[in-house]
Specification:
SH3 type barrels, Photosynthetic Reaction Center, Chain H, domain 2, about 20% helix, about 250 residues, alpha+beta
Amino acid sequence: MLNNIQNLRGFTVSASDGEAGAIRDVYFDDEKWIIRHLVVETGGWFSGRNVLISPFSVLGVDWPAERIHLNLTKEQIRNGPDIDIDKPVSRQHEAAVHDHYGYPYYWAGPYVWGYSAYPTLLADRAAEYAHDNAIGESIKQEREQGNPHLRSGREVVGYEIQATDDTVGHVEDFLFDDRDWSIQLMVVDTRNWWPGKDVLISPKRIDRISWENRQIIVNITREEVERSPEYDPAYPPPIGPQNEIYRRFGMPPR
């Protein structure tokens, strides 16, 4: 089952030795369409700092209890590099976060999580990858380049959707798979443009994001958007090829 990114906001963060804060936001990769970091507000525990936590650290998400379980201690989180949420996240800052928690660099390998398709699998082999000299050279280069593809989940909510022939709605949310943290579908609210509904569009249909104009440009027509599967939050879409959105546009699942 897919879950809403916006629903994560406010979830309690459980460290191995107690509660450590709450989820404030996520940062996602707008090239690979995957959630890279959770923004954790430590609140009264550690003077209200915001820190980044990678899915490498996530043991599981308890959706009914609105709680995320981490394989970190409160001390590790307290001493983690803080983040200014009003500024872009650089690759150098990401590297500092990964260094602090002892995880490998996801950008150093051929898959979405470096040398694995799933962050939980890769975390178990962190020491092996962290000491690879070839990866280290790649890391050094990436540190200098920065990361232009890392974006705030809260920021894009409300962005207009520009189809090939018209403006058709705005971003309401994204649906993701918490096994690999990939963003599978975009929820588009069309009601401001016509007597509409919330519909689902695959990120594969996104040409680009205009951060200056607060727009997401998609390579489908207004009519195709109107005919897209309706989204009902009471009945989340399934994962995989049985999902109607993939059949409708003849696309494989992400």
